[in-house]
Every structure is written in C-alpha cells, then in structure tokens.
Amino acid sequence: MGSGQVTDSSAPFDFQGKHVTVAGLGVSGVPAAKVLHGLGARVTVVNDGDDERARTQAAELETLGVTVRLGDGSTLPEGTELIVTAPGWKPDKPLFTAAHEAGVPVWGDVELAWRLRGRDGRKAAPWLAVTGTNGKTTTVRMLASILKAAGLRTAAVGNIGVSLLDAVTGDEEYDVLAVELSSYQLHWAPSLRAHSAAVLNLAPDHLDWHGSMEAYAADKGRIYEGNRVACVYNVADKATEDLVREADVEEGCRAVGFTLGSPAPSQLGVVEGLLVDRAFVEDRQKNAQELAEVSDVDPPAPHNIANALAAAALARSFGVPAAAVRDGLRAFTPDAHRIAHVADVDGVAYVDDSKATNTHAAEASLAAYESIVWIAGGLAKGATFDELVAGAAKRLRGAVLIGADRALIREALARHAPEVPVVDLDRTDTGAMLRAVQEAQRLARPGDTVLLAPACASMDMFTNYNKRGDAFAQAVRELGA
Q1: Which residues contact 384 (CB under 8 A, 6 or more apart)?
Q2: What pairs with residue 423 in β-bridges?
Q3: pLDDT digits (tens, 9 = 90+) for 134-152
Q4: How many Å apart are CA 327 and CA 309, to the nearest integer?
Q5: Beta strands of 109-229 (E only): which ranges?
Q6: Alpha-carbon distance 35 to 33, whole Å?
Q7: Which of 304, 257, 265 is nearest to 284 (CA)?
Q8: Is the entire prediction scored with pTM above 0.85?
Q9: Which of 1, 79, 187, 371 could form a disulfide with 219 if both were Cys (CB 3.0 to 4.6 A apart)?
C-alpha cells in the first residue's frame, strides 16, 4: 500500500501555485489547509463526512478561498500534485491508491511540519520524539517539564498540546520541541529525522488500521530513522531494542536503554531508590550520575518511573544537567484520569486510571498495587484478556465488570482467577458507575485499592475516557459524603 511518498527532506518544496489536496477536516486538516493556503498553494479539502461540524469548518475555509468537497474522500481531485492527509486516514483508502498510481506523494501533517521548520530563516528547533503503545503523553509532558527546568524554550507538541504546525509556523521560537507521535502520524512522515527519539513499549493496538503487528511495529520504528544522538529503548521490551537495531541512523548515534533495574553502561535505571544515568556520563563503565529520587516521580508506579527514565534519557541526550531532571520531574503534574488518586474512604484507596483503554495500559496499572478491587470493561476493540488476568490474578481481591464486552473479561477471570469474586453489572445507564463503585466498596478491605483500569474503550457508555473517569470520581465522592 505505497503512497509515492517523497523522502528527500533536504529539498525545499515550493508550494506557490501547487495544487495540494488535504484529506480530512478536523484538528489536523483545517490547520494544514490554512497553512498551505498561506504559502500560496491552491488547496482542495476532501472529506468523507458531510455533517454539521464539517459544513461549519468548510464554510470557514471557503471564505479564505479554499475549495472543500464534502461527502467524497475517495476521488483524487484532478491536477493534484501533493496530498496532505489527516493521520487517521487508512493507507488502503482509494484516494491513496489513486495517488500512488498517479505518482502523487502523500504526507501527513507531521511531515508537512517537518518540511516547514526553519522556513522563514529562523533556526529550526530540534525534535525530541516519543512514541509507544502507552505512556506517550505522560513522557512528553515530563520531558517538556525537564527541558523548561533547564531554562530552554520548549513545548509539548504533536499528538498532544500545541499543534506541530503551529509550533513551526507560529511567532514563538523554541530551542527544542518535545514531540509525541502516534503510529498513524509516523506512517505518513517518511522524512522525519529527530535529534533523539524513544519507543516506550510495543503491544498490539490499532491493528485494524495497520493490518498486522509487524506493520504497526514498523511504523513505530520510523521514529528512529536518521536519529542524530540517541535511540532510546525499553530494556524490558525487546521489540523496542530490535527496532533500534533495524534503524538507519546518523554516524555516532547511540542506543540508550532505560530499565527499572540497575543500569548497565549506556543505560538509565534505578539504584536504591534513585534514578541514575550511566549513558551520558564520562567513563560509563565506572561512573553513574544521580538524577532524581523515585519519590520525585508522581505517581511512583513502575510504569511511570519508566516514563520518567525515558524522558530523562531524551533530555540528557540534549545536554540537560542532572539537577534539571530532578526539578522538572518534581514540577510535573500528571494529567487527569492517568492513575490518579481520587480519595481514601474507610481505609480504601480509590484510583482513576480511565485512560487505561487497552490491556497493555491496564497491565501496567494493575502492577502498581498489591491488593485490588478492579473495575473493568467497555469496548474491547478486538482484545483478549487471558494474559492480562493471569498476570494480575494474585493481586485481585475482587472485580466489578461494566460495559458492552464485560463477558470477555468475566470469562478470562473464570479461567485464570476462579477464586476472585466477580460482580457483573448488566446496565449502561448514568447510574451504572455509582453502582460499580458501591459494589467495589462492598468487596474491598482496609488497605485495598479500588482501581478503575477498564482495559477497554469507553464509547459504549461514555463520550470518552475523561467522562468515564469523571463519573468514577463523582461516585467516589458520593461514597465519602
């Protein structure tokens, strides 16, 4: 499913008078269309949908002189010389097949941003890039906090916060950018060359889009291509190290691992409650640099410590001093619904990890606590739960199941944790979460943690994972009222 993509990022692309088709409205398509129009391109936007939101966006663009074609995202507009696509559009769409046959290159908004950096004569800020199945947003925000603590002008951008296009074309100048990239974005960014990059972990996700685990991993691995200083990988996840081995990097670029254990040379790790660096120090065989205490990481759950080590590795690759790593981690505040402590009620902790929308994220969350009443369920997205349940069985005091695909989790519990009491809630109304929390309270004992880590998407019952987490927090507050 090739796309005729251009890979020579050193060659400037003159947009003046070029016919550029933008595939998809929305958070990336509208800014891309505006930027391209401002560069003198003749822009046509194509969009599958023709709903009220799309029509509102189309009307805004049409006032600028952009052509918008709603309800048909499959036909290649005549004369198209370049396509800039929203990252979520699948590579096998007829539009891209037609582009490939016509020799028309396809870029994503990340590729466009990469091509535009430094275009106005300003110094192009280097990119420190992060991808992975889970933990991307937290790691990038930690990284930005560390860079700011070092006195650097920076922002968390990409699949988070500030749009990359805004960052590279706006008025504000940056010393370095902390960039979150999804597998979708990486697929459409063939000429991206980061200063340094990290793949945090790899687990099956979005396979309906990529077609296979191999294709998904290959797109994640694109983040290492052309790295200049460091390819940061997870020692506990061999697949990430394999991607480093396969990458074509600049001469002198190093592989740097992070581990929750004691680090070997060229690794960052944990020693006696300290985060330490044996990668960016003189005489790595003999020396290590203390960066921070584990208690400086909020929350100090294992997967979050791993996120902090990855962020620290990228910051250190950019020459950030150890004190700034400590100060940046101390200043970092986690986003809502990411292993967030809501309250203690009658000696039981209630924790909201509604962001754990797949099994890999839920596994990390469950590993953070010793005795758990687990609230789980929702839309499984094709996932299976045997491995997750088998690994967590000894930690489970009980389970409360909600959502459309809860039977899949119930069956896995029956196979791998038959002694664990299970409450199966067959309701999807607005009061379901309160009932789930009440049932979890009934199962819990002082010292336990009631953990919302659904391992599933939320859209069967809630607008998004934020609303699901809000419902959980409200239910907990009602318990303590």
Answers
A1: 359, 408, 412
A2: 400
A3: 889 999 999 999 999 999 9
A4: 14
A5: 127-131, 156-158, 177-180, 196-199
A6: 6
A7: 265
A8: no
A9: 187
